[in-house]
Amino acid sequence: MFKRVKNKFVRYFLIAVYSLIILLCAVQLNFLWLFGYSPTKKDIVLPTLHISSELYTADSVLIGRYFEEDRDPVGYDSISENILNALIATEDIRFYKHNGVDFIGLFSSVVSTLRGDTRGGSTITQQLAKNLYRTRYNQSQGLLGRIPGVRMGVTKFKEWMTAYKLESKYEKEQIITMYLNTVSFSNNAYGIKSASLRYFNKQPNQLSATEAAVLIGMLKGTTLYNPIRNPDKSKERRNVVLRQMQKEGYISEEQYISFSKEPLNLNVNNPERGGANDSYLRAAVEKWLEKWSEEHDIDIYTAGLKIYTTIDSRMQQLAEETVAKQMKGLQERLDNTWRNEEPWRDKSGAVIPGFLEDKVRKLPVFASLMEQFNNDEEKVFQIMREPKKMKIFTWDGDKEVEMSTMDSLKHYVSMLNTGMMAMDPYKGEIKVWVGGINHRYYKFDHVNQAKRQAGSTFKPFVYLTALENGMEPCDKYEDKPVRLDFVNKQGEKEVWEPKNADWNFSYRNMSLRWAMARSLNTITAQITRDVGWDKIVETAHRCGIESHLESVPSVGLGSNDVSVFEMVNAYATFMNEGKRVEPILVSKIYDNNGKLITSFQTKEKQVVDPENAWLMTYMLRGTIEEPEGTSQALWEWDLFGNENQVGGKTGTSSDYVDGWYMGVTKDLVAGVWVGCDEQSIRFKSSQTGEGSKTALPIYAAFMEELYQQPELGVTKGKFPDPKVEIKKKYNCPSPRIRVEVPSDSTAVESDVEDEQTETLFTLPEVEESERTDINEIER
């Protein structure tokens, strides 16, 4: 049809236009899969960015981020003019004059290249097209992309097409803003805000000309001109950008001379994965949202969400500071316990042979060295015993030391760890979550992931079961030896004869409240026999324990493994009038535009009769109020003004492996666990290792600090009055006890009078520390 056109030049022009149209259609439609993917009209209207999600406390403090690309987009008016000037002067001086493709600039770059000054010809819009739609990635290439020379031509043509589409849809300000929000600045910083915070700890509207020049200079090569890795090269490139700014009139000659002499002045803020951005709380929220993310098909690492937790940042800070202070002292105590001895011991106290060697064999580095040295284990261990420079965690901060791999392993396995959680028992809101001593070195979360023997903190479920079976807090049992004959799951007959913590029996009749307060194993065992251990398991599960519990006679003494999370949830049931609440860690989630996506509220269910629930809070107070109650160490802290009432329960597992404390007040339920991750490493005696000496001080010190800040909503005061009639008898004061001890003893005389008797009991000489509970479970 072109032959009809007589004018040769017109005919060639029409052929060229027609060919161009066909080429455009073929590329756009990916004809015969030759050209690969091209952005559609929808892509241009709704460009997809991977935006990091932000994690906040309930009081709006940013505590972490989730990202694959650490990106936080900002608006045009939030970007420093220095950044805009540096970018245009360096990358695209004709940015405001072209329509996406700058043929004049392209011609100039070719001429400059021929003269030996290599310059790129891509405009900012073209680079945005590449960043947004990955036009140079393999997945964007068609069959022609397999041909090296042709591939670059097709890629460039697609970038031009996309650039024209972007220019037709967006204003120049929008384009340059999108570009700065998408470009990579190395060190996993994507976008100008992340880069500004990462390298200078400033918002992008606060950057000076020199700082802007550093960042824009990186765009030529993010690794080569990285100011952290290559400061000299970065400074050299910065000065090139400054010279370009001077040439284009954005800064004066005098400013250029002055600026070019300045140092880089970095203020590195580097919250990468595994770094300062990582925390127990951040990991816990990620796990918490797994099901929600799956159900809503939302990836929190790319969706740009604003996630608000129930955590109070001020309470959290108090808890973390308290844990750090107390754990430092506890670690010194454990170190002094063993001094130059090996701390890993079996039940008999003997050193476990080959303990460290067995641990080393599980390390990835061991497998790598074995492969390198042809499975010569002796050679590998020789290498792993050679000292080398390394950085280790200590309570005095990270330290540079010369230490072998074996010695560093010994250092880390011998560290005490902890888990602490505090929760509003009525709303179910988790206020404090301390998963361990340092998330960088110990990833395992000791609030929700770790499960350890609960010790005597489990006993309240025995006493609740007794109340549910018709007993009253004033009912009495005799503290005497007890023998339980039972048949195990294998059908074999067994005998269980539990002992008290001090291995003594007073042969005294004690009320249930007093017996629980003193944490007597003998009376707990008798109640277990009378109500049935199956019922105790059912009670614990009903209150909030979700772990599997072996139904055995020793269940009431805490022989099963549970988590801090479960224990706090279960104790909250007592305070909440017998209603079990579902703990919540996340309250609200907003999308990137500030629109509320979802909110979370607790669910509650009546699982315990309100009368029995109130009586349990009264009995928990008994550990402080009753003679020789196991929580009486709390009197050493400033906790009891303004008629304040506190309830709680200590717990210590066999051989002092685990120390627990569960505390309840009118506003807060909290749980603390302390122990080594390696259960073969433990304290030697009750004076150093029981729960009242390890976990209780952490709780007490935290509450003491918390009470000094009433604005946080936790104040001193009495427990709530019962909202139902209490028909069971519960007010039966225990007898006053006089303990005859040497004059230098620290033991004190209890001043609780017995309204029913004037008898004064004289007890054997036992140190105060030995009267708290230790679970010696014998079968």
TrEMBL record:
Provide the protein's localization. Cell membrane
Output the SUPFAM superfamilies linked to this UniProt entry: beta-lactamase/transpeptidase-like, Lysozyme-like
Which InterPro entries does the entry link to? Beta-lactam/transpept-like, Glyco_trans_51, Glycosyltr_51/Transpeptidase, Lysozyme-like_dom_sf, PBP_transglycosylase, PCN-bd_Tpept
Please give the pathway this protein is involved in.
Cell wall biogenesis; peptidoglycan biosynthesis
- Gene3D superfamilies, alphabetized: Biosynthetic peptidoglycan transglycosylase-like, DD-peptidase/beta-lactamase superfamily
Biological process (GO) annotations?
cell wall organization; peptidoglycan biosynthetic process; proteolysis; regulation of cell shape
Keyword line = Carboxypeptidase, Cell membrane, Cell shape, Cell wall biogenesis/degradation, Glycosyltransferase, Hydrolase, Membrane, Multifunctional enzyme, Peptidoglycan synthesis, Protease, Transferase, Transmembrane, Transmembrane helix
* Glycosyl transferase family domain boundaries: 63-246
The record lists the catalysed reaction(s) as:
Preferential cleavage: (Ac)2-L-Lys-D-Ala-|-D-Ala. Also transpeptidation of peptidyl-alanyl moieties that are N-acyl substituents of D-alanine; [GlcNAc-(1->4)-Mur2Ac(oyl-L-Ala-gamma-D-Glu-L-Lys-D-Ala-D-Ala)](n)-di-trans,octa-cis-undecaprenyl diphosphate + beta-D-GlcNAc-(1->4)-Mur2Ac(oyl-L-Ala-gamma-D-Glu-L-Lys-D-Ala-D-Ala)-di-trans,octa-cis-undecaprenyl diphosphate = [GlcNAc-(1->4)-Mur2Ac(oyl-L-Ala-gamma-D-Glu-L-Lys-D-Ala-D-Ala)](n+1)-di-trans,octa-cis-undecaprenyl diphosphate + di-trans,octa-cis-undecaprenyl diphosphate + H(+)
Q: Provide the Penicillin-binding protein transpeptidase domain boundaries.
A: 420-665
Got a GO cellular component term for this one? plasma membrane
Query: From the Swiss-Prot or TrEMBL record, what is one GO molecular function term?
Result: serine-type D-Ala-D-Ala carboxypeptidase activity
Transmembrane annotation, as ranges: 12-35
Give the family this protein belongs to, as stated in its UniProt record: In the C-terminal section; belongs to the transpeptidase family.
Q: Which PANTHER family match?
A: BINDING PROTEIN TRANSPEPTIDASE, PUTATIVE-RELATED, PENICILLIN-BINDING PROTEIN 1B
Report what the protein is called.
Penicillin-binding protein
Q: Which organism is it from?
A: Sphingobacterium phlebotomi
Taxonomic lineage is: Bacteria, Pseudomonadati, Bacteroidota, Sphingobacteriia, Sphingobacteriales
